[in-house]
Design brief:
- The protein has about 80 residues and is of the alpha+beta class.
- It has one domain.
- Helix content is about 25%, strand content about 30%.
- The chain is built from two helices and five strands.
- The protein has a five-stranded antiparallel beta sheet with strand order 1-2-3-4-5, covered by helices on one side.
- The longest helix is centred in the last third of the chain and has 10 residues.
- It is globular, with a radius of gyration of 11 Å.
């Protein structure tokens, strides 16, 4: 993913996120390590996640579990 503005999150699951609206790729940096990219994430889904009361719960319920086949590990 190109350099996009990182968004720090107040989450016990996710350290930060980055989003590319042109390719619809969401990059997640997890607190326990690992960076993953999730494809076909709409800009609205990204905004909803950023504005959710719990970023981690939103991510798990609406992105991670629904886009299992559309992710790749970028780094440990």
């Amino acid at each position: 993913m190109a350099k996009f503005k990182r968004n720090h999150t107040e989450s016990s699951l996710i350290t930060s996120t980055a989003y590319d609206p042109f390719s619809q790729v969401l990059e997640i940096v997890f607190c326990r390590g690992g960076i993953y990219e999730y494809a076909n994430v709409s800009e609205q889904e990204f905004k909803n996640m950023q504005n959710a009361k719990s970023v981690g719960l939103y991510f798990n319920g609406n992105i991670r579990n629904k886009k299992k086949e559309l992710y790749r590990k970028v780094r440990d």
